[in-house]
Amino acid sequence: MTQTDPTSIRVAVSTVIVALRPHPDTGAPALWMPLVRRVTAPFEGSWALPGGWVGPDEGLEDSAAARLRETTNVQPRYLEQLYAFGDVDRSPSRVVSIVYWALVHPDEADSVPDDWNVRWFLADEHPQLAFDHDRIVEYALWRLRNKVSYSRIAQAFLGDRFTLAELRGVYEAVLGRTLDPANFRRQVAQGDAVLATDETTSGDRHRPARLYRSNPDLAYADNGPLTPPTRQERPCPSR
Amino acid sequence: MTQTDPTSIRVAVSTVIVALRPHPDTGAPALWMPLVRRVTAPFEGSWALPGGWVGPDEGLEDSAAARLRETTNVQPRYLEQLYAFGDVDRSPSRVVSIVYWALVHPDEADSVPDDWNVRWFLADEHPQLAFDHDRIVEYALWRLRNKVSYSRIAQAFLGDRFTLAELRGVYEAVLGRTLDPANFRRQVAQGDAVLATDETTSGDRHRPARLYRSNPDLAYADNGPLTPPTRQERPCPSR
């Protein structure tokens, strides 16, 4: 074991929050994320991912949840560890950032203030970010596009009940392209990630549409032996 | 941002190395990993994953490669970041460990000394490890069983050319169960991860068997925008 002094490295957490909101031009569902304006050097005035230092008595996920709540007021049900970023030159001082991500429901997203310090940006059209946060966001979006399964994406972005059109909107937003409704319906029917219910939309203006729900037997977080309890189950999520 | 003092947290790297070697009882391919005996407190005398502190001028992956070479003499072609472990009580002092993993060829594995300080253990039958390393190994094996694709597992554990029986041996070792040869052959033929060559084994004692190779178009490391160059391409892999 090399006996260098490891205390010159500081440990931080950051979180990429992604929510589905209408695109300002098209009105179609699009991926948005809240960013925080930095008020101190380095990168003062730049936008950055919400985060901060890991406290000496905080676990990594609890720390990510606490810094996220403090900076953006978001308290997501699920946080998933994305990657640890630790390049030597990613910050003027040496910082290793453990990055989490969360896909949040619209009601969770609504708790974020949209003001001078915190603002929602289209995930594909954000300004240049502080540190290596552009690279982190690029990686997070790549992971989202490659790794989410039908079940997880439905549970993450939508409510308990949703129509197939709403579910297709999620996929179109994530994949960045339109999907054929008939093919999409067929693919959903072939899988077991999403289950039809007996309920329909009220249909004031449109024909009532059947409501679906996520299959509760499929876990949201694909983390095997490390899967933590959901945040609601914790008496005190961030200590 | 909370202004706690983050310098009381130290950053370490550990690596889970997995290689395929014959099971001592059956002779069938099995998963083995090299462990390192700790010579200092805490957990003096216990076996642990190879690793050590991150140097102030080392990136995380370079650090993992350097500590691995120093402790076990292994220089794997690929290291992949597995997870950051940072529970408050995982060590007597506060340590965040960035854990990497690598699947290595037999020739890479042969460079590891098997002596008092470093020893190969069957992955499923290792002694109780220091710190939270049992949990880390459990997570790594779960990831291995869930996430490897045909292509990656072939490239990682076997040489440039391999028979279908050898490939099936890899899968049987990873999955911990025997597979039907005819079904396995059919599944391989349906995918594009493994390609037949014109070559065969020499077949001194057995009927010559066709040799296969991994499809080079399928990337080994599924890391998207973060995929690093392979270690051989680097002029100085660990600085």
Secondary-structure-derived class of chain A: alpha+beta
Q: What does the largest sheet of chain A look like?
A: 7 strands, mixed
Cα-based radius of gyration of chain A, to the nearest Å? 19 Å
Task: Provide the β-strand percentage band of chain A.
Answer: 25-35%
Mean pLDDT of chain A: 84
Largest interface: A-B, 45 and 45 residues
The CATH architecture of the largest domain in chain A comes to Alpha-Beta Complex
CATH evolutionary superfamily of the largest domain in chain A: Nucleoside Triphosphate Pyrophosphohydrolase
Uncertain segments of chain A are: 228-239
Helix content class of chain A: 25-40%
According to CATH, what is the class of the largest domain in chain A? Alpha Beta
Count of helices of chain A? 6
Gross morphology of chain A is elongated
- Looking at how many chains there are and whether they match, the oligomeric state comes to homodimer
Number of domain modules of chain A: 2
What's the CATH topology name of the largest domain in chain A?
A: Nucleoside Triphosphate Pyrophosphohydrolase
Helices and strands of chain A, in order, run as EEEEHEEHEHHHHEE
Give the termini separation of chain A.
33 Å
Beta strand count of chain A: 9
Protein name (chains A, B): NUDIX domain-containing protein
Region (Disordered) (chains A, B): 215-239
Domain Nudix hydrolase (chains A, B): 8-145
InterPro entries (chains A, B): NUDIX_hydrolase-like_dom_sf, NUDIX_hydrolase_dom, WH-like_DNA-bd_sf, WH_DNA-bd_sf, WHD_NrtR
